[in-house]
Design brief:
- This protein has strands spanning 10-17, 24-25, 47-56, 59-60, 70-71, 77-81, 96-105, 113-114, 117-118, 126-129, 133-138.
- By secondary structure, it is an all-beta fold.
- Strands 1, 2, 3, 4 and 5 form a 5-stranded antiparallel β-sheet that branches.
- It is elongated, with a radius of gyration of 23 Å.
- It starts with 9 loop residues before the first strand and ends in a 7-residue tail after the last strand.
């Protein structure tokens, strides 16, 4: 319960993935503006609900009514790769894993090339990707790799 005799100094914004009860405050200081850009702990394309608490010198109020479901969207950004260029030496028969962290919105389609030809998933080769990285894995390298 908020003491109404002290002026409101801002708002705490709380977020919860839709369908759960795990509320997380997403701002470190009370927000004074009516807009807030949530960045930390948000996963793109997931559904969330929000609520706010008014804050004054005495403390924070009970939470507001829960918002309608909202889908988190990353603002568009040009693709960038966090590639630390280095030589990779693998002995024939050993495994090879090449992870490549990236940032791109919307999510890119990813393909790997060697010698100008696109690599395809097969018995000897697997590829994985998620929101922040792509990787290629060969469990047992050949000399030609």
């Amino acid at each position: 319960l908020l003491c109404t005799s002290a002026p409101i100094i801002g708002y705490h914004i709380e977020l919860c993935q839709a369908g759960t009860e795990k509320w997380m405050r997403i701002n470190s200081r009370p927000v004074k503006e009516l807009k807030y850009k949530a960045e930390e702990g948000i996963i793109p394309d997931k559904e969330y609900v929000l609520r706010v608490r008014a804050v004054n010198a005495i403390g924070a109020s009970d939470p507001s009514e829960i918002s309608e479901n909202v889908i988190a969207k990353d603002p568009d950004c040009n693709p960038s790769i966090d590639l630390k260029t280095q030589d990779i030496i693998v002995v024939e028969g050993e495994k090879l894993n090449i992870p490549v962290p990236f940032r791109a919105v919307p999510s890119p389609s990813i393909c790997w090339h060697k010698g100008g030809k696109e690599l395809k998933v097969g018995d000897r080769l697997t590829m994985k990707s998620d929101y922040t990285s792509a990787s290629i894995h060969i469990p047992s390298c050949l000399r030609s790799d």
